[in-house]
Design brief:
six-stranded parallel β-sheet; 16 strands; eight-stranded parallel β-sheet; mainly beta
Length: 186
């Protein structure tokens, strides 16, 4: 596996776009630096076999590029603790090999798209501490491999669906700090 890893340093500035044109790279890991700027819109065009993107704990900003949906081999997407904003686009549902999705502690807005239910291989979904609104999509409760679902401290509203019982492998469900209503007995 070809890995480009420069983690836990004091790197500043933007990620050079040339990094995303190294066709044999399978993992890009720049976690825990002070990188700023935006992710390029053609993110996966030059990286056909990219399996992991680790960019958590930086100062990256802007929207999550819709071109991420072109990363058909992507298994891990880690963008937590940055300054990303805007919606989580429905194109995220095209990442059918995704196993871990970390987008917590950003400024994402809008709803969780129904297409999130297409991520049938997803084991962990972390979206805590954003500004996500709307109700929980029923499709999320059809991801049978889901073990961790962290949606705490958003602006989610409505009822917790009974389909939550479909998550038979669930180990951690974190939905505190929202505006959910209703009475449930577990």
């Amino acid at each position: 596996m070809k890995i480009l890893s420069i983690q836990v340093n004091q790197l500043t500035g933007s990620i050079p776009f040339t990094v995303f044109n190294i066709s044999r790279i399978e993992v890009i890991a720049f976690t825990d630096n002070s990188l700023s700027g935006y992710l390029p819109n053609g993110l996966c065009n030059g990286l056909p076999i990219l399996k992991g993107i680790y960019l958590s704990t930086n100062k990256l900003r802007g929207h999550m590029p819709t071109s991420l949906s072109n990363c058909s081999h992507l298994q891990i997407l880690s963008l937590s603790e940055n300054e990303f904003d805007g919606p989580i686009h429905s194109e995220i549902g095209r990442l059918s090999n995704l196993q871990l999705l970390f987008v917590g502690e950003n400024h994402f807005t809008g709803i969780i798209p129904q297409e999130i239910g297409n991520l049938v291989n997803l084991g962990e979904l972390w979206m805590e501490k954003n500004q996500i609104t709307g109700s929980l999509p029923i499709s999320i409760f059809n991801i049978s491999l889901l073990q961790i679902l962290s949606l705490s401290f958003n602006n989610l509203s409505g009822f917790l669906p009974r389909e939550i019982g479909n998550l038979t492998k669930m180990r951690h469900l974190r939905i505190n700090g929202n505006k959910l209503i209703g009475t449930y007995i577990f």
